[in-house]
Design goal:
Immunoglobulin-like, 2 domains, five-stranded antiparallel beta sheet, 4 helices
Length: 306
């Protein structure tokens, strides 16, 4: 089902939802509800999740006028949970009474579709489905999920056709434990910015600035035990060689850091998203941070001479 949904209508629906939920008691001081007009509650055994999605006006760039944001909240009173929302592309842990947003998907028009995608939850690899707003490219990913199952590899999110490179800065927050067997006492919180710094007509620098700290009273998390590596696949695979020009294959997290790499020879730029994956000391995937990147459209990137 395709929906050309006006911003005014979405904001009105979001306001009504918030009004309806003001009487819900908070499970913790940091309790928040996901914003949007397509809320869905997931009561899954001992787990209690909520999902939602929204589209907002975006004024920080010249070309991209709207932002699609989806959200998962953990409504449990005590226990954190691991989630992996495949096509909106959000992977990480959620402490009790917290939420995580998907990366801001920048689009030129508010021409969106309401889709239903696979949501992995818990430590057994169980799946449910959750509605979200997506693009035509997202619909193709959902079609693959329907054909190949929820365990099929997710594809990159492409937000627009050919555009021009411009500066982009997006904030992010995520959570993950350094020891999956003790998530309560080893939970960490990472905050930062990802984005694009234009350095020429067909070139840019990708950056990932971050800070990591213990989440609340979780004092046993070991930051340096976490490794981070690029997960560039599908249309973004060509960025790997650019990344390795100035970075190692994997690196250990620090309490504060920056990862960046330069890309040039981007012909007919198209905005899409790649990710950095975070792994525990036991090599378990614990989070993924999405970042905007430009690639050549329709051909793949060509690595320049050294």
């Amino acid at each position: 089902m395709r929906n050309d949904i006006s911003i005014a209508k979405l904001l009105q629906l979001s306001s009504l939802l918030l009004i309806n939920f003001v009487s819900v008691p908070a499970f913790s001081q940091d309790w928040t509800l996901c914003e949007g007009p397509i809320v869905k509650h997931h009561h899954l055994g001992n787990f209690n999740l909520e999902t939602n999605s929204r589209i907002e006006e975006y004024k920080d760039t010249n070309q991209y006028k709207f932002a699609i944001i989806s959200c998962v909240s953990n409504n449990d009173k005590e226990y954190p949970i691991f989630v992996n929302w495949r096509t909106p592309r959000r992977t990480g842990w959620i402490p009790a009474g917290q939420k995580i947003d998907t990366p801001v998907l920048l689009v030129v028009k508010n021409d969106v579709e309401q889709l239903d995608g696979c949501l992995e939850y818990g430590n057994r690899g169980d799946f449910t489905s959750a509605p979200f707003f997506g693009t035509e490219a997202d619909k193709k990913s959902i079609d693959l999920e329907k054909t190949n199952g929820c365990r099929a590899a997710a594809t990159s999110r492409i937000s627009a056709s050919e555009t021009t490179i411009e500066n982009i800065i997006l904030k992010f927050r995520s959570f993950f434990p350094s020891d999956v067997s003790r998530p309560d006492t080893t939970m960490l919180q990472i905050d930062g910015e990802v984005g694009i710094k234009k350095t020429g007509d067909n070139q840019y620098q990708s950056f990932f600035n971050y800070e990591v700290a213990p989440y609340k009273d979780s004092k046993n998390g070991v930051i340096k035990s976490i490794t981070i590596k690029p997960a560039f696949s599908g249309p973004t695979e060509g960025l790997t060689e650019w990344f390795f020009k100035s970075n190692q294959k994997t690196a250990n997290l620090a309490s504060k850091g920056i990862i960046k790499f330069d890309v040039s020879e981007v012909n007919n730029p198209s905005l899409t998203y790649a990710s950095y994956e975070l792994y525990s000391e036991k090599n378990e995937l614990i989070a993924a941070i999405e970042l905007p990147v430009y690639i050549s459209s329709p051909s793949t990137l060509k690595v320049g001479s050294k």
